[in-house]
Every structure is written in C-alpha cells, then in structure tokens.
Design brief:
The protein has 181 residues and is mainly alpha-helical. The chain has helices spanning 18-37, 39-73, 79-83, 93-107, 130-145, 164-172. The protein has two domains: 18-73; 77-172. It contains six helices and no strands.
Length: 181
C-alpha cells in the first residue's frame, strides 16, 4: 500500500555551489572592468538599467496586488479544497499534493499559503512565468512524485498545459521514474 501523500517529504533545496558562484563573479568582474575602462558608457548603461528596473518594479507591484486580492477572496481554502477537484482513484494523490505545494512555493513571496485552485490559469491568473515552470517547478514536482519527465512529447497534455489541473494530469500521464520501479 502506498504511503499517504501527507507524509511525502518536502523538497530539500541545496545551497549555491562553486559552479553557481563562478559565473556571477565573472559577470561582476566584467562590469567592474567596463566601469573602469569606459565610465561614460557604463553610466549610460546603468541609467538604462535603472529605468528598466523601475518599470519592472511597478509591474511587479501591480501583479502582487492582483494576486493578493485573489488570495483574499479565497481565504480559508486549503489543499483539501484543491484535492476535491480530482478523483483520488484516478489521480495519484502524491501528484496532487506536490503540484499544490510547489505552486505555493512559487507564490509564497506574496502569501505564505496561497490558496490554489485546479482551474487557475498558470499565466493569466497566477501570473507565473512559463520558463520558471519549465525549469524549476516541473523538475521539483518530478523529484517529489517520482514521475519522469522523459518522453513528455508522448503525453496527451504535452504543449497543452494552461491550468493547474492540466499540470496535475500531465504528471499523471508521465511514467514513474526508472529509479522507483
């Protein structure tokens, strides 16, 4: 018998290693070189960068207000409400929990326990960047559920994931990892 999803271990995040810090240090060294060699060009680039940061910050604040309003309308909802949108006999409960908790992790900077719903659109409602979902989120769910992302092109939900429900069903159709079978 499978262990209940509430006992699924949390994803342990590893600290940055040497190979992560190396490109950052090289980038900073390059910036310092340009600042010393061409101070005027550096100041123009810095001004353009500052304007872009301010514009992005305004957009981020607007997005944060939108998400906080959404969360306040859903006050009191939990993973139980989310799980009721799926048939536990047809969908692996580990996938349901992993998707819910990892999405909450993506949104925790705004709300500590963001109430996610199955019909939430990833980009339009939750304002999640598709690249972040592909790079981080999907790999985290893969690790936690023991489902492999290999041969994703064969999945009936491949390139059709737009809601949280689609993410859960995408992973439901993925094969279990070779390490777990």
């Amino acid at each position: 018998m499978r262990v209940a999803s509430r006992y699924m271990p949390k994803l342990a995040r590893r600290p940055f290693g040497f190979l992560t810090w190396l490109p950052i240090v090289c980038l900073l060294a390059g910036i310092a070189y340009v600042a010393a060699a061409k101070p005027q060009a550096f100041l123009v680039a810095l001004a353009v960068f500052a304007v872009l940061v301010l514009l992005e910050r305004k957009k981020s604040q607007r997005d944060a207000r939108q998400l906080l309003a959404l969360a306040s309308r859903r006050e009191g909802q939990s993973i139980c409400d989310f799980a009721r949108d799926f048939d536990p006999r047809a969908v692996d409960t580990w996938i349901i929990r992993a998707v819910y908790e990892q999405l909450q992790g993506q949104l925790e900077h705004l709300h500590p326990a963001f109430p996610v719903r199955a019909d939430d659109r990833l980009k339009e409602d939750l304002l999640l960047d598709p690249d972040d979902l592909d790079m981080d989120f999907a790999q985290e769910v893969e690790i936690r559920t023991g489902r492999s992302l290999d041969d994703g092109e064969r999945n009936p939900y491949f390139s059709k994931v737009s809601t949280v429900r689609d993410v859960v069903l995408f992973f439901q159709y993925q094969p279990k990892s070779a390490l777990l079978t």
